Amino acid sequence: MTLARIWTVVSTNWLRESLNSQVNGKVSRKLRVLDTSFLFDPDVDTYKECYKQGHIPQSLHFNMYRCVNRTPERPVNLPDINCFTDYAQELGIWPDTHVITYDRFGPAPAYRTWWLFRTFGHKNISILDGGLRKWLEDGHEVTTEETAVERSNFEAKLDKNLLRSYEDVLENLKSRREQLVDARNPAGDSCTSSENYGGVIPGAKHIVFEQLFTENGTIKSDRELKELFDSAGVDLGQPITASCLRGLTACGVAAAAHILGKEHVPVYAGSWWEYSRRAPDDLKALAKKAS
Q1: What digits encode the pLDDT tens for the residues 197-218?
Q2: Where does the Rhodanese domain start and stop, copy by copy (predicted)?
Q3: Helices (H), 232-270
Q4: How far apart are CA 14 and CA 26, in angstroms?
Q5: 60 neighbors 32 (Cβ within 8 angstroms)
Q6: Is 140 exposed, middle or buried (0-12, 13-18, 19+ CB in 10 A)?
Q7: Domains in the chain, start-ordered, CATH in brackets?
Q8: Please, what is the Cα angle at 127 between 248 and 23, to 5 degrees?
Q9: Sheet of 240-243: strands edge to edge?
Q10: Mean local confidence (pLDDT), 40-56
Q11: What is d(CA 244, CA 182) in angstroms, rounded to the nearest whole number?
């Protein structure tokens, strides 16, 4: 089953039908499902604890931290491009492969993976709306069977239109050419001080990541998403850069804008974690607590 247009998100029923349409039940190079589930615990092997316990049929586990050189300023750094190329080849992702990402705990890793592949030139990618939770709620099965795939000829090509650096953000503070949208909650305790990871980049507008989703974890309707952008004072007709704490939830803002027709929304990869450690105090602002 193919799409005339690669949607940002696809439904569980669409994925089930697509998997059922595989010839003789064989894994096709045309479709690759990635379980991006991740636990923020260095002592836990997410692959063993999550993927091997049950996953969507024909899916492979994707570790978004593989190929990442973590630094104090950028703990969620962009992967090394050569390593990412090799990893994608290992996962059997070809230039014409439609990649589907999903998560089981929350949507952030799936949205980050969506952005990663697009940033490395693979635009043929969608997010499973609602993730594994919605998949199970809709009565679809999981499996513990491993998925074997043929190594591909994937070649990562960095799309700089989808990436912003610390230097880019500093320049934008002068030019104000791009609207900076912060996916963190400005009313949260983490944003009440300029110390550590609190505070905001001056001029940032806020679209809170969690507010992009319904109670069951699916993305909100186009109308509701548009209302979020409008209420935040974000003009979808003008350039936008998304930011957050470490570069994860910002990808949700980029995806929401993509759903609304904005093809290129770059993410400040270092986000506040890097900015707060490099920027001078006069280029930091305190977030306003909600009354």
Answers
A1: 568 999 999 999 999 999 999 9
A2: 27-144, 174-284
A3: 250-259
A4: 18
A5: yes
A6: middle
A7: 9-137 (3.40.250.10), 160-283 (3.40.250.10)
A8: 145
A9: 163-164, 267-268, 240-243, 179-182, 205-206
A10: 80
A11: 5
* DSSP strands (E only) in the chain: 9-10, 31-35, 59-61, 98-102, 125-128, 163-164, 179-182, 205-206, 240-243, 267-268
Residue with the two structure tokens 């589907």: 100
The three-class DSSP label of residue 222 is helix
* Mean pLDDT on 67-91: 92
Which residue among 50, 67, 191, 244 is the active-site one?
Answer: 244
> In percent, how much of the chain has pLDDT > 70?
90
Cα–Cα distances in Å, from 182 out to 21, 38, 169, 186, 288?
A: 40, 23, 13, 9, 13
List % helix, strand, coil for the chain (3-state, nearest 5): 35, 15, 55
- The string of pLDDT tens digits covering residues 241-280 is 999 999 999 999 999 999 999 999 999 999 999 999 999 9
pLDDT in tens, 105-123: 899 999 999 999 999 999 9
Pull the structure tokens for residue 198: 């609190």
Torsion of CA 216, 220, 224, 225, to 10 degrees: 140
83 as an active site residue: the answer is no
Buried b (16+ CB within 10 A) or exposed e, 93-124: bbeebbbbbbbbbbbbbbbbbbbbbbbbbbeb
* Tally of residues, the chain: 291
Give every CB contact of residue 41 below 8 A, 6+ residues apart in sequence.
none
